[in-house]
């Protein structure tokens, strides 16, 4: 269920390269991808808000993030991200989606206004679960305010969407 190490490294690099100070992750699982994100946030001085619906996974994530020494960078919200994320108010540098694929379209509908111009929306499993993400992929590839590429280093793939600084 975890992102492969190559995708973890990509997360870290994108966080650091964009200077992200506020990253939102949907789908904490056991905290592995959050750890990679936090490695980038150490360089930017940023924080991670991560959402997990499963209590057991959230508990594992808390333990793993604490053991890795990055717990102070993380706010872990246990609950349904569809209901919890509308409470967010601050600008988002990177939004990372790795949860219910059928629900991917709901998150940018709610959170894209908070993604800063030049910020990114990253959607994991954009290749191996593309059928479940059709609405999401159509939305991010047809919106003139966004530019999306799908990276496929392995079978899972990641859609990387830039919120353009100006619509073209």
What does this structure look like?
The protein is an alpha/beta fold and 168 residues long. The chain has one domain (5-163): Vaccinia Virus protein VP39 (Rossmann fold), CATH 3.40.50. The protein is built from six helices and seven strands; from the N terminus they run αβαβαβαβαβαββ. It has a seven-stranded mixed beta sheet with strand order 3-2-1-4-5-7-6, with helices on both faces. α1 (5-18) runs parallel beside α2 (32-44).
Task: Note the topology.
Elements: H1 5-18, E1 22-26, H2 32-44, E2 47-52, H3 55-67, E3 74-78, H4 81-84, E4 92-97, H5 106-111, E5 115-124, H6 134-142, E6 146-151, E7 158-163
Helix pairs in contact: 1-2
* CATH architecture descriptor text: 3-Layer(aba) Sandwich
Molecular shape: globular
Q: Note the total helix count.
A: 6
CATH superfamily: Vaccinia Virus protein VP39
Helical proportion, percent range: 25-40%
pLDDT averaged over residues: 94
* DSSP strand count: 7
Strand percentage lies at: 25-35%
Specify the CATH class: Alpha Beta
Question: What is the total domain count?
Answer: 1
Query: CATH topology, anyone?
Result: Rossmann fold
> SSE string, helix = H, strand = E?
HEHEHEHEHEHEE
Question: Could you list the spans in which at least 5 consecutive residues all have pLDDT below 50?
Answer: none
End-to-end C-alpha gap: 37 Å
- Spatial arrangement of strands, main beta sheet: 3-2-1-4-5-7-6
Give the C-alpha Rg.
15 Å
Q: How is the main sheet built?
A: 7 strands, mixed
Could you say which structural class the secondary elements and strand pairing correspond to?
Answer: alpha/beta
């Amino acid at each position: 269920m975890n992102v492969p190490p190559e995708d973890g490294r990509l997360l870290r690099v994108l966080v650091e390269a964009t200077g992200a100070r506020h990253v939102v992750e949907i789908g904490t699982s056991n905290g592995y991808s959050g750890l990679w994100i936090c490695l980038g946030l150490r360089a930017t001085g940023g924080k991670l808000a991560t959402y997990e619906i499963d209590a057991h996974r959230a508990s594992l994530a808390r333990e793993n993030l604490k053991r890795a020494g990055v717990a102070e960078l993380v706010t872990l919200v246990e609950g349904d991200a569809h209901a919890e994320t509308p409470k967010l108010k601050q600008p988002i540098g990177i939004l990372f989606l790795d949860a219910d694929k059928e629900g991917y379209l709901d998150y940018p509908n709610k959170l894209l206004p908070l993604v800063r111009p030049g910020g990114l929306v990253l959607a994991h499993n954009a290749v191996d679960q593309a059928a479940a993400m059709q609405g999401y992929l159509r939305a991010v590839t047809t919106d003139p305010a966004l530019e999306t590429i799908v990276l496929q280093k392995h079978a899972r793939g990641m859609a990387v969407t830039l919120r353009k600084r100006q619509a073209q």
